[in-house]
Amino acid sequence: MHVFLTGASGYIGSSVLRALIAHEHEVTALVRTDQKAQAVRDAGGRAIVGDVTDTEVVRRLAHEADAVVHTASARGIDPDFIATVLGALAGTPKPFVHTGGIFTFGNSTDISEQSPVSPPVMTAWRAPNEARVRASDARTTIIAPGIVYGRGAGIPAMFVGDGEHEVRLVGDGSQRWTTVHIDDLGELYVLALHRGEQDGYVVAATGDNPTVREIAEAGAHGSPVVAESVDASRRRLGDEYADALLLHQEASGAHARAAFGWNPTRPSLVEDLADGSYVR
């Protein structure tokens, strides 16, 4: 399968690129710089230097490919990109996998694909874009990743200590985050492409839902772990980002396992922070 991939140099996109190549798919990635293009080539893909806001380029690459995966999802990109891709794929069996996010569901102790949505301000922009994807007649799947971790990066890296300076929680740290390892997530994108659903939606979560305090204590490596008030977190991180990280979210990822055959095998976030890729 020849896949047109966006965001191939990013955290999620680079994992999807690795997974696609490992499964012997041909990948054409649209990237913004020669340096990023070389990284794609080094991984085994084909790179085109350009911009995802260039609708003519996006339309051509979508027509040329057998499938499209969009991991460069952003407020200023998605409306035109989605419209262009859906137009190019209309009337074809080509699958389109779009990236959503777990924050969409707000506070919930049992997030599933049927859960009501209640996004924080930071990600409220996703709703109309996802509605357009789901209402199309193309073969679309939206993947909503939990808090992504692994390879020493992602949001959890904010809790990696040096044994000296304090590690600050977000609020009191009692909220739970639902999580997914970056490499397990890449595998799920490949499965979604193979499945090629009509209006598919899948929550990407391994079922591991540690508290923020548990996460911070695993990553502190001897640094003091310090709670703070909600107001203090909002001042430090900004209102919108703090409000998203203060959400209490738990999910099992049962649909991804049952319907897609997904089998996440990587270490948990707490394990990875304690003695894995985050150890400096």
Q: Can you put this structure into words, describing what you see?
A:
The protein has 280 residues and is of the alpha/beta class. It has a domain at 2-152 and 179-207 and 252-265: NAD(P)-binding Rossmann-like Domain (Rossmann fold, 3-Layer(aba) Sandwich), CATH 3.40.50. Helix content is 38%, strand content 19%. It contains eleven helices and 13 strands. It has helices spanning 11-22, 34-43, 55-64, 78-89, 126-135, 182-195, 212-220, 230-237, 239-245, 254-260, 269-275; strands spanning 2-6, 26-31, 46-49, 67-70, 95-99, 108-111, 139-145, 147-149, 167-168, 179-181, 200-204, 225-226, 249-251. The strands form four sheets. A seven-stranded parallel beta sheet has the order 3-2-1-4-5-7-11, with helices on both faces. A two-stranded parallel sheet has the order 6-13. Strands 8-10 form a two-stranded parallel sheet. Strand 4, helix 4 (78-89) and strand 5 form a beta-alpha-beta unit. Helix 3 runs parallel beside helix 4 (78-89) and helix 8 (230-237) crosses helix 9.
Summarize the SSE layout with pairings.
Blueprint: E1 2-6, H1 11-22, E2 26-31, H2 34-43, E3 46-49, H3 55-64, E4 67-70, H4 78-89, E5 95-99, E6 108-111, H5 126-135, E7 139-145, E8 147-149, E9 167-168, E10 179-181, H6 182-195, E11 200-204, H7 212-220, E12 225-226, H8 230-237, H9 239-245, E13 249-251, H10 254-260, H11 269-275
Parallel strand pairs: 1-2, 1-4, 2-3, 4-5, 5-7, 6-13, 7-11, 8-10, 9-12
